[in-house]
Write a structure and sequence with these properties.
With 241 residues, the protein is mostly helical. Helices cover 71% and strands 0% of the residues. The longest helix has 29 residues.
């Protein structure tokens, strides 16, 4: 029922809120917790970045709900095709686990030795907070936007095939700043293809959320296991690109 303009506005609102939330959290942290640290150092603290993202996603989720329920007078979960799969949802988490095979492509592609994302795993506490975010709010909000809002618009105009492809591409591109690697982006685009296919076949955003959680959770568990509880990140290898 919503248009492509609604999706573009949602993307712009999300970017704006993420930036404002980060500025607000850094200002508050410098005022009350880290008065002697520079703005640049605070902006790079993983815990503050995670807090700002958590706050921003909460505001964006409220905007999503208001967009559908106020502007279009529709029930949010029905309109985005949430369609909880019940006990069968466990199988979609299994699809997420199987997607880990795509990460093995990293062994055959030029992958960076270090990435900006590494700073979130420099301390075990930051790593555990990042892992918790990666299997909860992170996949939920990404799926709501890409598979809940963007895919239906593209599929309606171009058909399911191009809807899947053109949903997966921006999904991969938004992760470029995390890894600064086009090889990593390619792998994430392929993950996006699988997730959007799950959404298209099942007509359920909840199913793609479960598959996304299964994928991220498997990455986090294997990385924690390989690095002795995130204490020796040099052993992470392919798990975090």
């Amino acid at each position: 029922m919503w248009s492509g303009w609604d999706v573009l506005l949602l993307a712009a609102v999300t970017i704006g809120i993420l930036l404002m939330a980060q500025v607000a959290i850094v200002l508050a942290a410098r005022r009350f917790a880290y008065p002697h640290q520079s703005w640049v150092d605070l902006a790079q603290k993983p815990v503050l970045a995670l807090v700002s993202q958590f706050v921003a996603y909460g505001i964006v989720a409220l905007y999503m709900i208001l967009l559908l329920e106020v502007k279009y007078h529709a029930r949010f979960w029905t309109a985005i095709s949430w369609n909880w799969p019940g006990i069968a949802g466990v199988s979609f988490m299994g699809v997420g686990v199987l997607m880990l095979g795509l990460d093995l492509l990293g062994r055959f592609l030029p992958m960076p030795k270090t990435t900006p994302f590494d700073q979130f795993f420099e301390r075990p506490m930051d790593a555990y907070l990042t892992a918790a975010f990666a299997i909860t709010l992170g996949p939920l909000m990404e799926e709501l936007f890409f598979r809940g809002f963007l895919y239906p618009v593209l599929a309606r105009r171009m058909g399911a095939f191009w809807g899947i492809v053109l949903t997966a591409v921006p999904f991969g591109l938004i992760h470029y700043l995390q890894y600064r690697s086009w090889s990593a982006v390619l792998i994430i685009v392929l993950v996006g293809v699988v997730l959007t296919t799950v959404r298209a076949v099942t007509k359920s955003v909840a199913s793609s959320v479960l598959a996304h959680v299964g994928y991220n959770a498997t990455l986090m568990v294997l990385t924690a296991w390989a690095t002795d509880g995130f204490r020796h990140m040099e052993k992470a290898g392919v798990f975090l690109f």
